[in-house]
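User: Modeling request: complex.
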Amino acid sequence: MKRRRMVAPMALALALAMGAGAYAIEWPMAEARMESTFGTLREGRFLPGIEISAEDPAVLCAAAGEVLFCEDGAGPGGLPSGVGSFVAIAHERGLVSVYGGLEPGTAVDYLREARQGDLLGLAAAERGGEAGLRFFLFDAEKGQFVNPLLFLRPREDQRTPAVRAVYLRRDSQAIDLSQIRTLRQGLCEVQAEFWDPRDDGQGYNAPFQVRVLLNGSERISLGWDIGREIDGRYRLFSGEGKSVDEFFVPPARYRLGTIQIPRGRASLEIIVSDFSQRSRSSSYVFQVE
Amino acid sequence: MPEPEKKNHSWIIVAALAAIAYFFLAARPLGKEFTMSPRWATPLEAVSPGDRAAKDVRPFSLSGRFGYYGQDGELLLSSVSADSVAISKDLYAEYGVRGTKPVFRRPDGKEAFSLGEAGAPAFVSDRLFLVSPDNASLAEYSLTGGRLWTRDAGSLITCFDANREYSVAGGLDGKLALIGLGGGLAYSFSPGGSRLSVILGCALSPDSSMIAVVSGIDRQRFLLLERRGDGYRVAYHAYLPSDFRRRVLVDFSDDGRYAMYEGDGTLSIMDVRTHETRSLPAAGKILAARSGPIPGTFLVLTDEGAVNRLKAVRGVDTVVADVSFPRADAFLDCLGGSAFLGCGDRIARIDMGEI
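Assistant: Request completed. Predicted assembly structure:
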């Protein structure tokens, strides 16, 4: 595996676009472990935040702000909260951080202003295990969820993403690139199976970026940066985005996009990167007729 | 010796005649007197599910215990649950917060169906809804477990209401969405007008002609929207002195004539036709406010810290009954001419009337 130095163009562009100057926020739990990354598929939905866990259940305010909303399960009527008890903190420039999955009765419903590091509640234990928190960042001005890793202080990821297979799909046939030497020219959809392993090796998460290069030229670039609702459907990625149905083919394949394969000798490379800039690439060479 | 002056006593006669006339002319019939008559109080002992039948069975969820009771006070089911419970008169489900797919059972304990996805279910207006584990998506299911629609929200959902025709959801992004029976967006609205946008409470009138909203921080607002054609227009709005940072009570009376919303230590009741609004003192936290058994009355249940308090209100401002009792988890339900009050480890029936 070649470790590639990745300049995070999407992170920088997003930070500049938001005028945030890439200000850092603190992890909301001490010694937190990443359980699920932004955009990981959970129960048929892209996770619009991250899931972390820690031995210490204290949930701390990631950055200074004021309490926007506190849900502690004791309110009148309406629906229960699917994320359990939670606190939302409003920060500068329309950014809102949300701390979900708190132990009922521990959310600080008496606070108005919150400083970075202030206690907001206690994370509920995961069925007798460690305390787990669902952490979201929401851009209220743009109406979109943002990958918290773009703003959290960077931390090391112990494992490198994995690529299991890459396919080119044309008509109704998916061609495994590891099994072919020749291909007809034309328009093909690139599909791939990849993931970012959890540090504990117990599950699979979404990576941070996927790039597809054809003959050294980047043709597809997807970054797990934002998600937003359009016409009642949550769509991941900037631009038009992709819904779950448009992006995921059960049980484990992603539809990355379409590319035009020209005639001649072709080299297709897929690079999957996590937020720590650890990456894995797989290359395939074949003849196009 | 001069004769003593004769005193003029005619004024006494005039006063007496005026008094007699007043009694007859100024008399008004006495208003009806509001009555509350306790009928029974049932302790919530454990009762296993069985094939008991009762008329007008009512569900309850109180102090970690849930089940069903009949109007005569008989418990048909009373179970302890370590999880949360969604319960209607025909179905119930225990569910956890993380990753559980709710299993629905009938009052006799037999499994009816299970949902194919995780989330937090709730029965609202006899409809079954499911909030996703990230609180950013809503689904409706039929009462036989078939999914009717799913709709993703633009942010985390903060409040919700539904009637038989529509549902309305408010979000952390300060937007309100009116959703039709098929899950399509019928109308959306952002109240704005505050430094921070968030929807704190929302309610639909029974005929869907009005939507009531409490929104924003600095300053907080109450808005009443009225339907006009395919959309709604703001019929009334007011800035509120409150500074809530949580879900607040907003509701309509059963007949849609009054809108209620929680204030800072008050419950405001508005006549939606005249917009006349009065604020009742409601110290502590409002646990429930609903139309009373008698038309034109409301029942308000509050947690005042040391005690719970139940008030009956006629119109927008006349308190006709005020009862306090030791503080505990509590709920309030109404059926026919009776109110059912759950408190701590028992449920009581209180018949209400006028004489």
